[in-house]
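Reopening: structure tokens for the magnesium ion complex, inputs below.
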Amino acid sequence: MKVAKHYHGNILIVAAAGELDHHTAAALKGCIQEELGKGMVRHIILDLSGLSFMDSSGLGVLLGRYKELAKWQGNMLAFGLQPLVEKLFLMTGLNKLIPVYANLDSCLKALGV
Amino acid sequence: MEVINYFTISFPASSRNESFARVVVAAFAAQLDPTLEELNEIKTAVSEAVTNAIIHGYRDRCGEVVIACSLRQDNSLEVIVKDTGTGIDNLEQAREPLYTSRPDLERSGMGFTVMEEFMDSVSIQTQPGQGTSVTMTKRISAGEQGGNGKN
Ligand SMILES: Nc1ncnc2c1ncn2[C@@H]1O[C@H](COP(=O)(O)OP(=O)(O)O)[C@@H](O)[C@H]1O
Ligand SMILES: [Mg+2]
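Re-run output (same inputs, fresh job):
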């Protein structure tokens, strides 16, 4: 699991690549929590284009960060889902909490940027 | 149904083995000429069962996970994931979507739901204090379409 982050204003963009399971979930959690701790993050956009595997442990860690953001009405959005990851989002209804878009531009547009 | 091939492995209940376990089963299942989608579904289901054995069965302590896999004449795969950990007290509740006994670990409670969705059948034998064994089967369609390793 490789995690990269950058900002677009106060929007944190997190690119998670590789395999997101129970073993690697802590790395993604740690990375996002570190940024949330700085108190400047308004919304989060997940770039999952490099994510080749995810299971329900991945769902858990994403849901956890979603709940953190919801404390200040922040939104979490995602783009670039590979078919397996998209299937998991749809099957579990995660896409109702973390809406899925085609690319970064449409995520930014959805946030009114 | 006649078994045409099989293997058994055991490994320590360590999270580092989760990816190893799903890759091994996927490599074995490749003999059935599955589609990439089918392979991914098998990998995900195995990952769920193995993770459960490690986190819930052994509570992240020492233990051994066993995987027994077989291929059947009807182009189906059977995977058994077994632990000798805590066992499950209330199986009906455990299988419910969103139920988790460990919300403190940010579990989603969707593991069994994912296994059921991605495999054709999932049956669970469990005994509190003795352990849990999850048996999953999946029929691979690709072979029927005359794929036989050529695509
Ligand atoms: N191998 C196991 N040993 C003991 N308990 C288990 C095992 N597998 C599942 N469980 C129980 O079933 C519940 C539901 O499992 P699951 O659907 O995978 O959700 P999660 O792993 O997110 O908790 C777990 O929270 C746990 O209480
Ligand atoms: Mg689970």
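Strands of chain A lie at 2-8, 11-20, 43-47, 51-54, 76-79, 100-101. Residues A 56; B 48, 51-52, 111 surround magnesium ion (ligand 2) (CB under 6 Å). Marking as resolved unless the reporter disagrees.
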